[in-house]
Amino acid sequence: MLEAHARTGIRNRLLNKIGLEDWDLIGPHLEPVTLKERQVIEVPTKPITHAYFLEIGVASVVAVDAEDHRIEVGVIGYEGVTGVPLLMGDNRAQHSTYMQIGGSGHRIPQEPLRDAIAKSEGLRALMLKSAQGFLIQTAHTALANGRAKLEQRLARWLLMAHDRMTSDAVPLTHEFLAVMLGVRRAGVTVAIHGFERRGLVTTRRGQLTLADRGGIEQIAGSFYGTPEAELKRLLGDK
Amino acid sequence: MLEAHARTGIRNRLLNKIGLEDWDLIGPHLEPVTLKERQVIEVPTKPITHAYFLEIGVASVVAVDAEDHRIEVGVIGYEGVTGVPLLMGDNRAQHSTYMQIGGSGHRIPQEPLRDAIAKSEGLRALMLKSAQGFLIQTAHTALANGRAKLEQRLARWLLMAHDRMTSDAVPLTHEFLAVMLGVRRAGVTVAIHGFERRGLVTTRRGQLTLADRGGIEQIAGSFYGTPEAELKRLLGDK
DNA sequence: CCTTCGCCGTACGGTTTGGTACTAAAAAAT
DNA sequence: ATTTTTTAGTACCAAACCGTACGGCGAAGG
């Protein structure tokens, strides 16, 4: 417990997978952080100052274009790290990244992280596999956006969020879900209502609780699952 | 001309950017290839055997799920290389990749490529920037799929293909465009008809020719352009 | 306690796109 | 040259979704 950078109690899957021989490159630079809902982590076109290894909570990565069209292209939780471009040698944020569900984690400034990745092949391999996992997730978001119906996309989102949460309660308004999915707020309301009627979720103002995950998986069908399975393959089971 | 691995006449932007000091890692392994329309380059879940540095032609990367939903998540031409997962340390194909418009290029077996990337930091940086460019493209495909109308998406696709072609003629059937965009063939026919009426394209059976690129850019609006600008930033102008 | 504000339920017309299908025209095959 | 196959034009109804809007209800704050 006197050990300054002990790894006990670390839940982030990437940090946990860093080999002992590489820990000195990362551990000393980590800073524990609390992350509130809506906390901004990256702003488009601006430099990425830190990478956040999440422990608790869910971050949204939202692509934005010049005419302010926006849509979520990926979510990040305890299984990953924000600042994917840093892992690829770029330090500029493309997308808007912010906490969708509050939590905590450890952050590291971009420079020591990039140094560490440059120095250690093992660390680099780990981080790139994580980035690859994110790329797969983004590709499947493109697939779902193009081919799935609102209900399926909502189900997919709930499942992905749920995977990254410790509770079944998703503390989000319909408005925010609508922004993520790129649809009308009213459309989300109706879809959730449908879920509720079928006993898949229960709702309260500003909150939605998964009641029947299996049923939600059925609705999402094959729009959910592939990126999750691939991440498992890339990073090993456990 | 006696030089076995001369770099003269190479149009691929990545190959052109490889430093002289790294060329020995790549050049000797390159094999010139002709790539016909519909030629398959990668098959989902199977190992990636080669990376293809395209010179001419356009490859489509198509995500497929377990229920056979499919949609294009990116295109690759002379500016890039297929087999993005290889650059990230993975050798398994997630997506279906095939030539949408025939051409030619040079291919390299996956092993020497991965070795080269492991050995040379400069080469690695170059390849990862290319991968980052592809990730940005995929994210914007997700954005367009979720928010843009059929006409806008068609315009975006035509512009991206045109950027990678030497001619204005796109030798594709409506059917294939429909698969790329994940829409009905009939929808594509109607949209193209609209473009034609406005003088943006001319058509022949199995072929479509861009007549007014500026007009097509107007239709695509901000759904087109960001990934292209970012790739320029990542790889430098020229 | 009462007001204010944010969130949700609902509605309605309009647009876009999907599913399907039939025919014509062009190209390819025999 | 004739047949077969592929591609394109068109049409029709149905479903999904958008834009918009308005009222109610719960929560927070004065």
Describe this protein's structure.
The structure is a homodimer of 238-residue chains. The first copy, chain A, has 238 residues and is of the alpha+beta class. Helix content of chain A is 45%, strand content 23%. The first copy, chain A, contains ten helices and eight strands. The first copy, chain A, is globular. Chain B binds a DNA duplex (30 and 30 nucleotides) through helix 8.
Quick structural overview:
2 copies of one chain form a homodimer. With about 240 residues, chain A is α+β, with helices and mostly antiparallel strands.
- Poorly predicted runs of chain A are none
General form of chain A = globular
The gyration radius over C-alpha positions of chain A equals 18 Å
Instruction: Give the beta-strand count of chain A.
Output: 8
Reconstruct the topology from this structure.
The structure is a homodimer of 238-residue chains.
Chain A: H1 13-17, H2 20-26, E1 31-35, E2 40-42, E3 50-64, E4 70-76, H3 84-87, E5 96-109, H4 110-119, H5 121-147, H6 150-163, E6 169-170, H7 174-181, H8 185-197, E7 201-204, E8 207-210, H9 213-220, H10 226-235
Helix pairs in contact in A: 4-5, 5-10, 6-9, 7-8
Chain B binds a DNA duplex (30 and 30 nucleotides) through helix 8.
Keywords, separated by commas or semicolons:
DNA-binding; 45% helix; homodimer; 8 strands; 10 helices; 238 residues; alpha+beta; three-stranded antiparallel β-sheet
